[in-house]
């Protein structure tokens, strides 16, 4: 059983074999050049993706910082609103108590004067 090359080169002169091998090497060189170009292009794309990713990470970090600061402000504002709400509900109760007390005093005074 012979090699494929043996069958391919059977009956050919050394010069013909050399020419066939040189043509194969040229074809391989073209293929390697195409592969090299493709790899360089892929490398460029990978570098661009990496740079864009770094940029996006920076933007996300900045956004995270701003959201964190706003979250703290919202919590503080919510606490203040809760305090105002508690004070206002207590204030309304005291005003209602005072008005009812005045009304009661008015009713008592009116009852005493009518006797």
TrEMBL record:
Q: Which keywords describe this protein according to UniProt?
A: Membrane, Transmembrane, Transmembrane helix
What CDD domains does this protein's entry cite?
SNARE_Qc
Give TM regions. Answer: 93-112
Domain (T-SNARE coiled-coil homology) ranges: 22-84
The cross-references to Pfam families, in alphabetical order and at most eight, read: SNARE (PF05739)
Any idea what this protein is called?
A: t-SNARE coiled-coil homology domain-containing protein
Q: Which residues form the signal peptide?
A: none
InterPro entries from the xrefs?
Answer: T_SNARE_dom (IPR000727)
Does the keyword Heme belong to this entry? no
Per the record, the domain of life is Eukaryota
Organism the protein comes from: Arcella intermedia
Q: Does the keyword Cytoplasm apply?
A: no
């Amino acid at each position: 059983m012979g090699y494929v090359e043996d069958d391919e080169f059977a009956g050919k002169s050394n010069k013909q074999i050399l020419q066939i091998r040189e043509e194969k090497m040229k074809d391989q060189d073209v293929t390697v050049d195409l592969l090299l170009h493709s790899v360089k292009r892929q490398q460029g794309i990978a570098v661009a993706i990496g740079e864009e990713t770094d940029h996006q990470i920076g933007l996300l970090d900045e956004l995270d910082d701003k959201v964190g600061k706003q979250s703290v402000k919202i919590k503080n504002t919510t606490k203040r609103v809760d305090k105002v709400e508690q004070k206002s509900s207590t204030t309304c109760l005291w005003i209602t108590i005072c008005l009812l007390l005045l009304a009661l005093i008015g009713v008592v005074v009116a009852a005493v004067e009518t006797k």
